[in-house]
Amino acid sequence: MAKVYAFVADGMEEVECLAVCDCLRRAKVDVKLVSIMGRKMVTGSHGFKIEADSLFEEITDDADVLFLPGGLAGTNNLKAHEGLAEMLKAHATAGKRLAAICAAPSILGELGLVKGHRATCYPGFETKMEGADCRGDGIITDRLISTGRGMGWAIDLGLELIKLLVSEEEAERIKVAIQYIK
Fold it and tell me: What architecture does CATH give domain 3-177?
């Protein structure tokens, strides 16, 4: 079974995190919300309180995907966490998948992890995507990095990760089950 760590912090965009994680859990992917705040309860950018499954200090990098939800304050909190930065770099070096949405792809950009990749991010963050070929697409997967433009693309990112981790058929099954028919 595939495993995903979704890193949560005060100020994160709740829908970006939970929509992606909900899709993945429906596909039986082992998803763990991991707080970088030193406590399990985090408060999202719109005041929703969300309890993480684990603290950053309690995990090792045994996940298939490290996922970063956006939200400006949440992105700044994630960016400031040195342990997370080191884990992201080591994960990429090990040839494992990364995913980020909205403002959070800028973290990958500032770490040099999207250099030479096609990527997307929330409009205005392109300048922090060092060396990336930024496009206005909703979702882009280039090699082992998947990026999403913003909250309106969160379900799409969840479905994209299901395709990559489970199968295209499972992504289609989830799409029908949640009535995501365009």
Answer: 3-Layer(aba) Sandwich (3.40)
